[in-house]
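Lab notebook, design round three. We kept the backbone fixed and only want residue identities now. Task for the bench partner: fill in a sequence for the structure below.
Input structure tokens:
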């Protein structure tokens, strides 16, 4: 643990460029060092992995206050921009040679964790990359070589592997990090959310389950995790049903497939989670989702997700507790029922060609033209998209947007305008995140075998910082 990566994993080169103003202060803040705090109590997971008996076994106090008003981005009186994001942007490359990076988590003031779908949780520290943990029961997932011209949609691992990452809200005290990954078990693939002690000498040996038994498949695994405004852990799960062979589970509140979950840091459900049916899983916040891969919040604490559609019909959805979002019955694409003809909750925006991934409602000052917009990555679109979301009873998105989503059947409480940025400059963009100093970062996903045009380049995959041109 903690050394350089083995070249046998196909890594051509890795570097983290420390420039003037580039990720100032990113480094290792361990919080607690020393011996593993586990008390030795062990249980065997479904897949036979020897893991601690639960989050309490880490030996830290994981509790938080869950006060929305204490969130540093809380602003109930926020106002959307009155213009469109027409400014030109540039991407400053900070790190290269990553293997299909999937998520970013800034922890505390000076620590950055990155997941690579091939199986590593990495920490950036002043120009170096350090492997923090590699889950032992994760499925085998692959990346094509940087600069390769091959196109392989069905790479080993499909869309599974190591996905979301989120540091505890009080990191580094406790020094606990959460990850979402696809595991091999005795009953087949399952998605898991686990926590581990990032300060331990062997973090892999401290892994504890937080939410287990999430349905998994080669495709449609969801996978984004994030701590929200009131310090609950939110989890997006896919329908795990790309062939539509188990259509009942997505809209079944008792199943964890095709859901947005909300739990405390120890994995238990909050008492005010919605109680949609008598047999509903108490961790379920919303259901009827296909493959949500991004989540963030408006400044008043309202959650927004990105959701992949079937061959088209990608969506941005504003979430309401306990609501059914209709998949696989309704979608404005294919042979599905259309929203204007149903009672299901409709999206705030949709498109046929985003393939929307992770995003952030940006509140920083470094890119002023994107402030108070939801900025998310696009895979098949190979760009970043900025969405201006406005209350339906207020000023509407400006005419300069690439598209205005103002038809009467959209979400009754909001309107949106969307515009593409950095088209074909980065390739497939997997996630966009805001740093602690208000900078805007993105990671690419060009080594997953699905990139078009000049991608993957020799230095893919990359971590970049987005700036005004």
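Proposed sequence:
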């Amino acid at each position: 643990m903690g050394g350089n990566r083995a070249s046998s994993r196909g890594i051509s080169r890795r570097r983290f460029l420390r420039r003037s103003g580039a990720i100032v202060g990113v480094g290792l803040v361990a919080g607690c060092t020393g011996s593993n705090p586990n008390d030795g109590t062990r249980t065997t997971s479904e897949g036979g992995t020897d893991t601690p008996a639960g989050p309490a076994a880490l030996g830290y106090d994981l509790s938080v206050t869950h006060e929305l008003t204490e969130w540093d981005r809380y602003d109930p009186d926020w106002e959307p921009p009155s213009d469109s994001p027409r400014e030109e942007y540039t991407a400053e490359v900070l790190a290269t040679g990553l293997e299909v990076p999937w998520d970013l988590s800034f922890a505390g003031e000076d620590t950055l964790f990155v997941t690579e779908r091939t199986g590593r949780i990495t920490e950036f520290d002043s120009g170096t990359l350090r492997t923090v943990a590699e889950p032992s029961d994760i499925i085998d997932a692959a990346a094509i070589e940087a600069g390769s011209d091959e196109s392989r949609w069905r790479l080993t691992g499909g869309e599974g592997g190591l996905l979301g990452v989120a540091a505890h809200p009080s990191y580094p005290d406790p020094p606990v990090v959460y990850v979402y990954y696809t595991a091999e078990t005795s009953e087949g693939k399952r998605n898991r959310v686990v926590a581990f002690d990032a300060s331990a000498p062997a973090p892999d040996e401290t892994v504890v389950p937080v939410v287990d038994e999430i349905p998994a498949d080669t495709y449609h695994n969801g996978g984004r995790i994030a701590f929200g405004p009131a310090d609950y852990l939110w989890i997006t799960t896919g329908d795990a049903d790309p062939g539509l062979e188990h259509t009942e589970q997505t809209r079944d509140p008792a199943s964890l497939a095709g859901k947005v979950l909300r739990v405390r840091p120890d994995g238990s459900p909050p008492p005010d989670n919605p109680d949609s049916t008598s047999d509903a899983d108490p961790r379920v916040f919303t259901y009827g989702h296909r493959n949500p891969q991004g989540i963030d919040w408006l400044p008043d604490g309202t959650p927004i997700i990105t959701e992949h559609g079937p061959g088209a019909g990608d969506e941005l959805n504003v979430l309401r507790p306990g609501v059914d979002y209709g998949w696989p019955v309704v979608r404005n694409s294919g042979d599905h029922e259309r929203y204007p003809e149903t009672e299901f909750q409709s999206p705030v925006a949709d498109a046929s060609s985003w393939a929307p991934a992770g995003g952030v409602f940006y509140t920083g000052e470094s890119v002023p033209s994107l402030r108070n917009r939801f900025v998310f990555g696009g895979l098949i679109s190979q760009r970043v998209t900025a969405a201006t979301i406005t209350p339906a009873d207020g000023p509407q998105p400006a005419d300069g947007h690439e598209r205005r989503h103002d038809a009467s059947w959209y979400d009754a409480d909001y309107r949106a305008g969307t515009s593409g940025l950095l088209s074909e400059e980065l390739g497939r963009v997997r996630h966009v995140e805001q740093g602690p100093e208000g900078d805007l970062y993105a990671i690419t996903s060009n080594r997953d075998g699905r990139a078009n045009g000049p991608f993957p380049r020799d230095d893919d995959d990359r971590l970049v910082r987005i700036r005004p041109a």
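Keep this in mind before ordering anything: The chain has one domain: 89-468.
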